[in-house]
Write a structure and sequence with these properties.
Elements: E1 2-7, E2 22-23, E3 26-27, H1 28-39, E4 44-48, H2 52-60, H3 80-92, E5 100-104, H4 113-126, E6 130-136, E7 145-147, E8 153-155, E9 172-174, E10 178-182, H5 183-187, E11 197-201, H6 213-228
Parallel strand pairs: 1-4, 1-5, 6-11
Antiparallel strand pairs: 2-3, 5-10, 6-9, 6-10, 7-8
Helix pairs in contact: 1-4
Length: 229
């Protein structure tokens, strides 16, 4: 069974009720559910939440909420892997056997159905444990600077002060959209960022973190521009 798990706890601090706040005409979580449905990858799409209102909106949007997430997996410090492992274990206890499992974030409106399909194909083709999308940093990380407690500037890698940007190795970061993984990798709590993970490289204009209200506004502008294009 191919399973989509969408984590969506109710305790968002920086943007209250972020998972179900209206984004470009729909509750934010509805965009992720729609992408999962359109991909055709999944036998089951579930939302793991501790919140009754989020659960109701998830069901209205086409997902299932077969359980309420326990409190010990719903605090600010719980990571992605144990939440997905819990969902897999819940199904195993009821005689269902997930094989490939995708953790799809509820706040990832830029996810496209094709990305999910390509992620699954990569997981099957590469023989890896995980697959997830990444995008490149807009500026070489080797030339990053820090501000010291004395309000001065120093480089993290001063040896690269004179290195041309085009001669520096390109660096990438997690797009924060989804993680395909083999069920046993999730259950064994294997780390996602490792040599057992394969990347899917996305263009930067299709990646946007949404952690602040400023991020939210920028994401809506970008989302509308992509839809218009």
């Amino acid at each position: 069974m191919r399973l989509a798990v969408i984590p969506a706890r109710g305790g968002s601090k920086r943007i209250p009720r972020k998972n179900i706040r209206e984004f470009c005409g729909r509750p934010m979580i509805a965009w992720s559910i729609e992408a999962a449905r359109l991909s055709g990858c999944f036998d089951k799409i579930i939302v793991s939440t501790d919140d009754d209102q989020i659960a109701a909106i998830a069901r209205q949007s086409g997902a299932q909420t077969p359980f309420m997430r326990p409190a010990d997996l719903s605090d600010d410090h719980t990571g992605t892997v144990p939440v997905v492992a819990h969902a897999i274990e819940w199904h195993l206890q009821r005689g269902e056997k997930p094989t490939q499992v995708c953790c799809l974030y509820a706040t990832a409106p830029f996810v496209q159905a094709d990305d999910l399909r390509n992620g699954l194909k990569t997981l099957e083709r590469e023989g890896c444990q995980y697959v997830f999308p990444v995008t490149s940093y807009p500026f070489p990380i080797q030339r990053a600077v820090r501000v010291t407690p004395q309000r001065r500037v120093e480089m993290f890698n001063p040896e690269h002060f004179h290195t041309r940007s085009q001669d520096l190795e390109e660096a990438y970061h997690d797009a924060g959209q989804f993680y395909w993984g083999r069920a046993d990798a999730w259950l064994e709590r294997k780390p996602i960022f490792s040599l057992e993970a394969a990347p899917m490289i996305l263009p930067a204009y299709r990646v946007q973190d949404i952690d602040t209200l400023e991020d939210w506004k920028r994401a809506e502008w970008l989302f509308e521009a992509l839809r218009a294009g």
